[in-house]
Amino acid sequence: MIYEQRHWTQVQQVARKALCELAIGNAETATEAVDAVGGGLGPARRADSAWLVEIVDERLDDQERSELLEAVRSEAGSK
């Protein structure tokens, strides 16, 4: 159970970063976005992360997508 919990925690962390990469246009697909931020992931975590990014990306409406993009840009500007 602990392994599964760690698996999904890491999948969620990678998916959050990958969704940002997708939102700002640094990647064209969920898989490319995951590959850009999830270096060293095994095949199961990579596949689950890409699946999660695809699901979330499909469900974002235009308002949510623009808010995500603004948040990413704001965070990048504060670094």
Describe this structure in words.
The protein has 79 residues and is mainly α. Helices cover 80% and strands 0% of the residues. It has helices spanning 2-23, 30-37, 43-59, 62-77. The N and C termini lie far apart (36 Å). The model has no long low-confidence stretch (mean pLDDT 90).
How are the secondary structure elements laid out?
Layout: H1 2-23, H2 30-37, H3 43-59, H4 62-77
Helix pairs in contact: 1-2, 1-3, 2-3
- Secondary-structure element order, as H and E? HHHH
Shape: globular
Q: Per DSSP, what share of the residues sits in E-state strands of 2 or more residues?
A: under 5%
Sheet with most strands: none
Class based on secondary structure composition and strand pairing? mainly alpha
Q: Radius of gyration, Cα only, in angstroms? A: 13 Å
Number of E-state strands: 0
Helix fraction bin:
over 70%
Overall residue-averaged pLDDT value: 90
- Unreliable parts: none
Distance between the termini: 36 Å
Number of helices: 4
Can I get a quick summary?
The protein has about 80 residues and is mostly helical. It has helices at about 1-25, 30-35, 45-60, 60-75.
What keywords describe this structure?
79 residues, mainly alpha, 4 helices
